[in-house]
Amino acid sequence: MIQIGQLSLDLNDPLTLGALIGTVFFLAMFLMVYFVLRAAQKSALAISPLSSHMDQITDSVRNLNEAQHQLSGGLKLVSDAQTLSQSQMQNTLERRLEEVQKSMGETLHGTASRTARSLGELHTRLETIDKAQTNIEKLSGDVLSLQDILSNKQTRGAFGEIQLKDIVSKALAPDAYQFQATLSNGKRADCLIHLPNPPGPIVIDSKFPLEAYEALRNANSDAESQLAGRQMVIAVRKHIKDISERYIIEGETADGALMFLPSEAVYAELHANFPIVVREGFDARVWIVSPTTCMATLNTMRSVMKDVRMREQSGAIRKELGALAKDMDRLGVRVENLDKHFNQAGKDIEEIKISASKAGTRAKRLDAFEFENDAVDAPADVLKLQR
Fold it and tell me: What is the average pLDDT across 57-73?
């Protein structure tokens, strides 16, 4: 039992319990609605800015959607443009690539041609170099052989004699010299030149002081140079003395002789550094010559021989000149007679022309029966009788 003021409620009574439960439920619902409304009011107040913000977001979304559509269109245009550009670029690249390939092909072809030509020229040059190398090797062998020859005195003398023979045979006639001529003293000269008197036959003897010259060239100090120089002077003086004593014979040969040096270098060394030896040779009437100066000397001898032969033949030449003068006189007389004959023949030809002209004129008159003119002309040829 519940007592509320004067009202007593019996909880055992179903109606009372129902009414009480209904009232509690109603109050609970009322409170719930009240709190819900309060919460809704607060939510409405809170949602109002959110709604505005949602509207803005909606507008933004709408704008974004429109921008997305525009962007989609722009992207499509960009894609189309990119596709077109890629296509054009691809075509351009293909064209350029084709041109580059063609250019590279032509360049490679030209390069290949030039390379082949260069290789051919290189091959030719290599062949030339090989030939030159062969010639050099052969020349080296010849030089070694020449050194072997010059290292022996006998072979060196033979070398000088061969060179002397070559020079003399080229400069003089065969009857103007004699090799290995034996003189009255029993000495044998390398070459005897048959010069007329004066000066008479002159001897050319070949000498080659190679050892002294090589020692002089190979000297490494002043002492060695001085020693080699003394050896050079001694060797040349000995050659000069031998030639002067052996090949200058009074009444048989000329009063001088020639010493032939088959080396220009030795000749130049003597005249450059040993002039006293050269003057001693002049005093002994032995003149030192090299291949070059020997050729010049022989040419001078040839001129002398030619002049002597011309003097020897001067009588025959004068005789022939006299006969030639008589022949010229006879020729002049005969030309004069022939000229007279030509003049007479010219006159005869002129008279023949005149007679032929007259005969032609008369023939024309006869052909035209012009006898009157003949009758008129006839008395001109008749001789008139004088009283």
Answer: 71
Q: How do the domains of the chain map onto residue ranges?
A: 2-121, 155-311, 321-381
Percent of the chain whose predicted confidence (pLDDT) is above 70: 74
The answer to whether 249 and 185 have CB atoms below 8 angstroms apart is yes
Determine the longest span between alpha carbons in the chain, in angstroms. Answer: 245
Task: Write the pLDDT tens digit of every residue in 246-256.
Answer: 999 888 888 88
Specify the pairing of strand 188-193 against strand 177-182: antiparallel
- Burial environment of residue 38 by CB neighbours within 10 A (0 to 12, 13 to 18, 19 or more): exposed
- Domain 155-311 fold is Trna Endonuclease; Chain: A, domain 1 (3.40.1350)
Contact of 237 with 280, CB cutoff 8 Å: yes
Structure tokens of 67?
A: 């921008």
Which amino acid is it at 325?
A: A
Extended beta strands in 249-322, E state: 257-260, 286-289
| Rounded Cα distance, 113 and 334, in Å | 81
Tell me which residue has tokens 């008159």: 365
CA distance 2 to 8: 6
